[in-house]
Amino acid sequence: MAKQPKVLAGQVAAITGGARGIGRAMAYAFVRQGMRVAIGDLDVEAARRTAEEIGSGTVAFELNVTDRGSIERFADDVERELGPIDVFVNNAGIMQLSRFLDEDDATAHRMVDINLHGVLYGMKVVLPRMVARNRGHVVNVASQAGKFGFAGGATYSATKFAVVGASESVRQELRLMGADGVALSVVMPAIVNTELGGGLNKPVGQKDIQPEDVADATVEALQTGRFDVWVPRDNQRIYAASGLLPRRVRETLSRAMKADRPLWGVDEGRRRAYELRAAQSEPGLEPGQEPVALTAGERAAED
Description:
Keywords: Oxidoreductase. The protein is built from 10 helices and 7 strands.
């Protein structure tokens, strides 16, 4: 007999990077399930506006995920306002794109600090609380760039591979510790219609994915305990099947479907506002240089 989906009503959820995009959609989805929600974001004014729009007692706090102390304060604030955290979503992340050889070091450090260390700090802060109660669920938002490395986003892909790997390892540690009441999921969406996903190239046949689709898949994972959360789910079968093929065949098929360049040759005009905002998203670092734009001739030569 299949397990009944877990009832989420009354649970406390905390979401990092919750002011916009996927985090915002998750906050709405959680509230629809009857959960009490807190969102944290570096842009605290945007977080407060989002919380007010959502209503239903949603609260917002300033959060810098590159600072473990800030995450500690966020968790303390959430538990003081709403009660013990049942669900913690490590969602905050940025994606700055360029050819790897053109990427400046400040940009690389920024992505590693936010996308990877932010997730590691989040788990280190909340998991001891959950393990002590033997209750809770951590959701790490990665990407399908954490399963397939993509040209134009080498460092971004590296951070997401690391998030998937860390999630796998921590899940095993929880099992070996006997913390059977604590679950972990890793969410891996393809290109999502958000500011972060703007101007990218969809592979042939790839459906439009909205933030709400990722939020709904996350709700299902919380209800069922699913670890691998692919959005869309069909891509998991593609990944499994491609692993049976020789690399040369995989790469030939990928080129034929234009699945090798979602982050390559992107629409820089559409991404400019996002890239500039992302460059300011780690207060401890100076903004990196803007990605070097290829000329039409250089693009043609490389294509």
